[in-house]
Amino acid sequence: MSDDLLFITEEKIDITRLYNALDNPGCGVQLIFVGVVRGENDGRQVNSVKFEAFKELAEERLHTLAREARTIFPGPLKLAIAHRVGLLAVGEVCTVIGVAAPHRAECYEASRYLIEQLKTRIPVWKEEHYVDGDSTWLDGTALVAQDCGCSSCRR
Amino acid sequence: MVTEIRLFGALRKFGSNGVLEVEIATPCSVAQIRERVKETLAERHPVVFQSTLIDRAAVADATRVLAHDETVNGSAQLSLLPPVCGG
Q: What does the pLDDT look like over B54-63, one tens digit per residue?
């Protein structure tokens, strides 16, 4: 049973809480990735982004990703992942991925792996709101039933 | 029977408070549910509804995404999930 901290939240993400959750004497590196709302996308000026999630399934899949990361990357890993939902202004933190690992190589690789998988396998959607008053839901990646992450299982 | 299906993301606007009620005879396959939803939305929103949204949407119960050929019974809590783009 891992003691990873993995959750979807409507509240502002407390990065310090996630950082503290990475404490592990077997890990020599702690890495925090912070995703924030960008003020431009495809040449359009973004005012805010509304994030929506299927919370129960999203958190279940975050645990799947965590288990998966442990089979890929060597050594003890500590993981702390949070994704915010709701209407966020430009510059607000939407995603935090914390990884602690024995060495920097697997720490960077695990962090990159987790954010890339999160973007395509976790049921979260975003609607961009532009300064001109328009808004649109962004397209993304279709979810599949077998959530193992391998390319052959993607439809 | 009438089944309630939760809608997310770009699909949410096609339901009432994010929920779509469709008449579905269960048990049936996930593929049949998807087709029934397409028919229902095409009837109710003929101008704005794009069926490709449903073609690329996943069907889930309370805890997992269901396979295309999986059988669903009448008590399942279903959701329709368009392509995801978190992070």
A: 999 999 998 8
Distance of CA B67 to the CA centre of its chain: 13
CA angle B39-B40-B43, nearest 5°? 85
Residue A152 has pLDDT above 60, yes or no: no
Contact A83 B65 (CB under 8 A): no
In whole angstroms, what is the distance from residue A36 CA to residue A26 CA? 30
| Residue contact B65–A60, C-beta within 8 A | no
Interface predicted TM-score of the whole assembly (ipTM), two decimals: 0.91
**Most B-contacting residue of A143, A154, A155 (CB-CB within 10 A), to test interface:** A143
- pLDDT, average across residues A98-125: 98
* All residues at 6 or more sequence positions from A5 whose CB lies less than 8 Å from its CB, including other chains: A17, A18, A21, A79, A80, A81, A82, A98
Measured distance CA(B43)–CA(B52) in Å, rounded: 15
Q: Helix, strand or coil for residue B40?
A: helix
Query: Does residue A139 sit in helix, strand or coil?
Result: coil
Contact A24, A99 (CB under 8 A): no
Average pLDDT over residues A51-77: 96
Name all contacts of A17-20 with Cβ < 8 Å and 24+ positions apart: A18/A80, A18/A81, A18/A82, A18/A96, A18/A98, A19/A80, A19/A98
- Assign A154 a pLDDT band (cuts: 50, 70, 90): very low
pLDDT tens for B30-45 read: 999 999 999 999 899 8
* Phi, psi of B85, rounded to the nearest 5 degrees: -160, 50
User: Would the CB atoms of A124 and B81 count as touching at under 8 Å?
Assistant: no
